[in-house]
């Protein structure tokens, strides 16, 4: 039901000369308004994947440029976490792909360093 909703913007009284977005404009086309409201932060779903088993840590509002190797703080966790992978899930909407969910796969700093060393060892072993 919420997917069909459209944003309507009340126009100011008087001749200001500036027009807001038209009421029939879908929300995803009003990028300037979204940037003004949310800034550069976006909601990420955070999952701890290493060490197993996978554990969902909830959602966090983080900078949209968060990537691999970034250190973040998550609610309900006393230690900082390191981003080991960023996954994006997309939906096909109106012939275009739209980001549905951003998922951060995180690990403790110690486990992240161990995984990096193991990947280096495997890469060196493949080169021989």
Order of helices and strands: HEEEEEH
| DSSP summary: helix tally | 2
Q: Gyration radius, to the nearest Å?
A: 21 Å
Query: In angstroms, what separates the terminal alpha carbons?
Result: 57 Å
Summarize the biggest pleated sheet: 5 strands, mixed
Mean pLDDT: 78
Strand order of the biggest β-sheet:
2-1-5-4-3
Which assembly state applies to the chains in this document? single chain
Query: Structural class from helices and strands?
Result: alpha+beta
Q: Give the overall shape.
A: elongated
The low-confidence runs, each spanning 5 or more residues with pLDDT under 50, are 1-17
Which range best describes the helical content: under 10%, 10-25%, 25-40%, 40-55%, 55-70% or over 70%?
10-25%
Number of separate strands: 5
Strand content: 35-45%
Summarize the structure.
By secondary structure, the protein is an alpha+beta fold. It has helices spanning 31-38, 109-127, and strands at 41-50, 55-63, 71-72, 81-93, 96-107.
Report on the architecture of this protein:
With 128 residues, the protein is α+β, with helices and mostly antiparallel strands. 21% of the residues lie in helices and 36% in strands. It contains two helices and five strands, in the order H-E-E-E-E-E-H. It has helices at residues 31-38, 109-127, and strands at residues 41-50, 55-63, 71-72, 81-93, 96-107. A five-stranded mixed sheet has the order 2-1-5-4-3. Strand 3 and strand 4 form a beta hairpin. It is elongated, with a radius of gyration of 21 Å. The N and C termini lie far apart (57 Å).
